[in-house]
């Protein structure tokens, strides 16, 4: 997601270091950041944060970590966290490529990937968040009953992810070819989900366990 550069973005994130980790200060120590032992759920590539902030509001006893590589995007999530006064969300300005360096093994109960960049060119396969190197990291940081939930409007990325997850040997708990056909009331829509659904795109969902 591209956003106009905001020169004040980094200062704003740093001023709120009780919510945002901009420099890996809580690497291998996320529990201290939350100061409790609640389960940890993470979203990789939060975008503007509608999904994670709604989920956090509905589940005050779960710790949520929103990971986003773009500072000009992450400030939008921070604004929502502050507006809502959420105490169970922490944000990381971080590249998910190094996820297993940040989290400890078996530390996470759930990972959400929502409308990840599709990277359609073959030569960019390694950047897709369902490429095997990412799956190895998810497997490492998820606990035994941990799940990965993936949603997309992109048919190509959906098919690629099905194959990649299958080749990795994951167990499929759910594969939905049209999530909004009979939308579950507890589905939380992301900003991209609303945009593409309103244009008539089908929304695909996969849930797996390693
Ligand atoms: N999840 C949001 C939604 O559904 O509305 C945003 C979707 S947007 C297409 C993908 C987001 O993932 C962008 O904000 C992008 O900056 C972020 N992203 C892409 N690669 C990433 C990475 N390696 N680590 C962290 N964030 C990443």
From TrEMBL:
<feature type="binding site">
    <location>
        <position position="43"/>
    </location>
    <ligand>
        <name>S-adenosyl-L-methionine</name>
    </ligand>
</feature>
<feature type="binding site">
    <location>
        <position position="117"/>
    </location>
    <ligand>
        <name>S-adenosyl-L-methionine</name>
    </ligand>
</feature>
<keyword id="KW-0808">Transferase</keyword>
<feature type="binding site">
    <location>
        <position position="121"/>
    </location>
    <ligand>
        <name>substrate</name>
    </ligand>
</feature>
<feature type="binding site">
    <location>
        <position position="153"/>
    </location>
    <ligand>
        <name>substrate</name>
    </ligand>
</feature>
<dbReference type="GO" id="GO:0008176">
    <property type="term" value="F:tRNA (guanine(46)-N7)-methyltransferase activity"/>
</dbReference>
<dbReference type="GO" id="GO:0043527">
    <property type="term" value="C:tRNA methyltransferase complex"/>
</dbReference>
<keyword id="KW-0489">Methyltransferase</keyword>
<dbReference type="InterPro" id="IPR003358">
    <property type="entry name" value="tRNA_(Gua-N-7)_MeTrfase_Trmb"/>
</dbReference>
<comment type="function">
    <text>Catalyzes the formation of N(7)-methylguanine at position 46 (m7G46) in tRNA.</text>
</comment>
<keyword id="KW-0819">tRNA processing</keyword>
<keyword id="KW-0949">S-adenosyl-L-methionine</keyword>
<protein>
    <recommendedName>
        <fullName>tRNA (guanine-N(7)-)-methyltransferase</fullName>
        <ecNumber>2.1.1.33</ecNumber>
    </recommendedName>
</protein>
<feature type="binding site">
    <location>
        <position position="95"/>
    </location>
    <ligand>
        <name>S-adenosyl-L-methionine</name>
    </ligand>
</feature>
<feature type="region of interest" description="Interaction with RNA">
    <location>
        <begin position="123"/>
        <end position="128"/>
    </location>
</feature>
<dbReference type="Pfam" id="PF02390">
    <property type="entry name" value="Methyltransf_4"/>
</dbReference>
<comment type="pathway">
    <text>tRNA modification; N(7)-methylguanine-tRNA biosynthesis.</text>
</comment>
<feature type="binding site">
    <location>
        <position position="68"/>
    </location>
    <ligand>
        <name>S-adenosyl-L-methionine</name>
    </ligand>
</feature>
<comment type="similarity">
    <text>Belongs to the class I-like SAM-binding methyltransferase superfamily. TrmB family.</text>
</comment>
<dbReference type="InterPro" id="IPR055361">
    <property type="entry name" value="tRNA_methyltr_TrmB_bact"/>
</dbReference>
<dbReference type="InterPro" id="IPR029063">
    <property type="entry name" value="SAM-dependent_MTases_sf"/>
</dbReference>
<feature type="binding site">
    <location>
        <begin position="190"/>
        <end position="193"/>
    </location>
    <ligand>
        <name>substrate</name>
    </ligand>
</feature>
């Amino acid at each position: 997601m591209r956003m106009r550069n905001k020169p004040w973005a980094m200062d704003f994130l740093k001023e709120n270091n009780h919510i945002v980790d901009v420099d890996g200060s809580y690497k291998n120590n996320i529990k201290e950041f939350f100061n409790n032992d609640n389960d940890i759920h993470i979203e990789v590539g939060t975008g503007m944060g509608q999904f994670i902030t709604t989920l956090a509001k509905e589940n005050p006893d779960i710790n949520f970590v929103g990971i986003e590589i773009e500072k000009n995007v992450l400030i939008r999530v921070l604004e929502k966290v502050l507006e809502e006064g959420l105490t169970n969300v922490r944000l990381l300005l971080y590249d998910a490529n190094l996820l297993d360096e940040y989290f400890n093994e078996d530390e996470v109960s759930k990972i959400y990937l929502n409308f990840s960049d599709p990277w359609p060119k073959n030569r960019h396969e390694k950047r897709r968040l369902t490429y095997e190197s990412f799956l190895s990291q998810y497997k490492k940081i998820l606990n035994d009953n941990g799940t990965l939930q993936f949603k997309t409007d992109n048919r190509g990325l959906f098919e690629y992810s099905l194959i990649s997850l299958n080749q990795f040997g994951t167990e499929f708990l759910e594969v939905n070819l049209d999530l909004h056909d009979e939308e579950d009331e507890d589905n939380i829509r992301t900003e991209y989900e609303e945009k593409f659904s309103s244009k008539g795109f089908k929304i695909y969902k996969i849930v797996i366990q390693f």
